[in-house]
Every structure is written in structure tokens, then in C-alpha cells.
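thread from #wetlab-drylab

HS: before we spend reagent money on co-crystallization trials with nicotinamide-adenine-dinucleotide, can we at least see a predicted complex? here's what I'd submit
DV: go for it
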Amino acid sequence: MGNQDAVTGNTQEPDNPKESLNLLTSTQRVIKEALEKLGYPEAMYELLKEPLRVLTVRIPVRMDNGEVKVFTGYRAQHNDAVGPTKGGIRFHPEVTEDEVKALSIWMSLKAGIVDLPYGGGKGGIICDPREMSFRELERLSRGYVRAISQLVGPTKDIPAPDVFTNSQIMAWMMDEYSRIREFDSPGFITGKPIALGGSHGRETATAKGVTICIKEALKRRGIELAGARVVVQGFGNAGSYLSKFMHDAGAKVVGISDAYGALYDPDGLDIDYLLDRRDSFGTVTKLFTNTITNKELLELDCDILVPAAIENQITRENAHNIKASIVVEAANGPTTLEATKILTERGILLVPDVLASAGGVTVSYFEWVQNNQGYYWSEEEVEQKLEQVMVKAFDNVYQTAQTRRVDMRLAAYMVGVRKMAEASRFRGWV
Ligand code: NAD
């Protein structure tokens, strides 16, 4: 048994000197703690610690040179007690079954936090889309849908884009699914082009959701957004739009970065110029010589720090050096559990990934609702509804953290897991 911590209520592992960097085991640790705090029996943890189903598929694809290459793909469905599962499909050479499983659990938590009628799902294919032609990508996308078609559908499991997949890939997948089923099925997948039933506001939804969380966090700390100094790690889809929204709201974006380095200007960077010069992979710092490192960027003097790149960036090695008073996780898993504890003890308000980056799945849900009703909303309507959902979710997590005297991550997991656990209990599964 671990010790009970007075400030966070979290259990510690005094005999484990190694910091946990594994996303699946870290997630399972917090789920276990959340379920214990909520008073659920051990059997509930046994049910929720892994996905209900994981399908592995082999996809033969005729490449442009005439040869057949066989790709491996996965689809994980974490829990469908609340409703159909939902989550993106990742195309990446480093996709693993464990990663897809962990990401499907996170999708369940996000759906619970923003109160959507879904469980979590996730898919992935081991491939490098940067080295494939347009037609090879189309054949791979269609092959994947044929391979998983029995398991997915508008009322079963609804995919979406993720790393290195986009609206064109969603369009091919929707077309393939519609051909198999022999009727038009726009609600099978979200993140589609607007012409095929996509939703306004989907592309910027994650950054909008992060922006709403930043505003709510600032209110709790009595800090004005106008003039606040912001540092954003990562200048891809999430980080670049977020920098733009911060800049437009009058904040001073003093630091940004990509995989190759970081830029810093205490007077504020010219975000419009940087947006104009970045490439489609979110790279911009290569154009400059006076760069700093990502490590230095994270430790800059600022009010708000937003990790929007990759996992395990704030660890117990650098958590003591973070100077921001608010850390908002746009990326998945940028802060380890050990670092979460250090930041919380230092009085830094940490808005966890499962809450901060839930704007994307929220607008995906709006897209699915619009597809189901065949009636489409304006961008203003989408933004207004997103704001309502995110503000309510933030408040719920913040209140839980205050009243239960736990850190924001554990509070978010408690909120995220509750509906799924209740639905599983009412169905008589546990
Ligand atoms: P992206 O691929 O568009 O951009 C990633 C950015 O991170 C790029 O600027 C890249 O150069 C940078 N980067 C890569 N490796 C780095 C490293 N080692 N150090 C510093 N920077 C590095 O990705 P994205 O869609 O913006 O996603 C970023 C994060 O946000 C991921 O963790 C993703 O899972 C999460 N997220 C994104 C969305 C979304 O809708 N885009 C939704 C939820 C969560």
C-alpha cells in the first residue's frame, strides 16, 4: 500500500524510484484511484482497465510499383455501456496495440468529462503516410474500413481523424463504408469535408476548447487574458491555432516551438508571420538562427504554459523549474503523474489533457448529431455550443478537485469515469 498524501489525496509509491512514462499503466493507475475514491468495487476497475474489444487486422495494399504490401491495423473499443464508441484513427510508423488501447481509454474519459453519449474507441495503422502516394493512401484507407466494417458503424463505433489522418482520408473511409452498406452513411465517421457533411468549426475545435479552458483557469486565478504571457510547445494543428487565438485575444505569446527548436521574444512573437511561414507538419523554427531548446522553452518565465506537442515533456526532472502559474495540457500525456504532484504542491493550476483537449471530440459529436438529423448548424452555433459544454466541464472538474481535495487530473478522471461506471452498473455488467 502507498502513503496517503495530505495535499492531493493521491497515493504514493515510496518503493518505486523510477518515474512512470508508460501512458497505459499511468492511465490505469489514475482510473483505479478514481474508482476507489468514488467507492466502486474492484470488479469495476477490472472491467475498465482495458478495452472491451481490440481487433487486429492485416490490410493488403497494391502499391504504385505493382507489389502488394501488407499493413497491420488496430481498432480498440474501450467501453460501450453509455453508447457507441468514438475516437480517431492514427496513421504512424510507431503505432502499437498498447498505444491504441490507452488512447481508447482516454476517449472514454473525455466523453465522460464533456458528457457525450459515447464510450471511447481508437484506431491505428502502422504505416508512414509521408512516404506513400495519394492513391496508396486511398487504397490503405479503404482496405482498413473493409477490414473493420463488421465492428464499426454510426450506432456502434464512429471513427475520426488523428495523427497524420485528415478530412480526405475520412471522405474515402465514409465512401467505402457507404458502398459496403449500400446506403449513404455520413454518420459513420466525423472530421469529413464540409461538402460531405463535415461540421463547421471542426478543424479549430481542439484549440478553441483549450482556449476556453485557459479563460476559465485564469478566472479562478484572477488573471486577465489581455497582456498575459503565454508559452506554447508545438506549432501543429493544436498549438498554431491556439497561439493565434491567444494572440487575437490580446495575450502575449512569448514562446513557441516545434520538433527542431523554440523561439522566444519577451515582447511577444509575431504569430501571424509564423503561421504564414509554418509548413503542414507544424515546422517553423528552422527558418531562424537565434533559437532556444524545447527544454528551455518549458522553463520560461510566463503566466500560461501549454504543452501542445508530445507526451512526457514535464517530468520530475523539470517540474520544479516550471514558472507558469497555469499549465494547460493540449497534448495527450505531456505531464507525468510524478510531475503532476509536484506542480500541484507548488500551487500551479494544471488543466489535464482529458479535459483541455476535449473540444475536438465535442465538435465531432456535433458533426454526428448534424448528420443524424440532416440539419446543419452555422459556425457561430457550433462555437456557442462548444463554449457551453467546455465551461460546464471545466467547472465540474474544478469543483470536484476543490471539494474532494484531489489534484485536477484525478478530479477529471473521477468525473470522466463516473457515467461509464454507472452505465455499466445499471446494465448489470458489474
Ligand atoms: P501536429 O502533428 O499537427 O503538430 C505537432 C507539433 O509538435 C509540431 O509542431 C511538431 O513539430 C511538434 N513536435 C513534434 N515532436 C516534438 C518534440 N519532440 N518536441 C517538441 N515539439 C515537437 O499535432 P497536433 O494535432 O497539433 O497534436 C498535438 C498534440 O495534441 C498531440 O499530443 C495530440 O494527441 C494532441 N491532440 C490533438 C488534437 C487535435 O485535434 N489536433 C486533439 C486532441 C489532442
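DV: Residues 1-16 have pLDDT under 50 and may be disordered.
HS: ok that's useful, forwarding to the group
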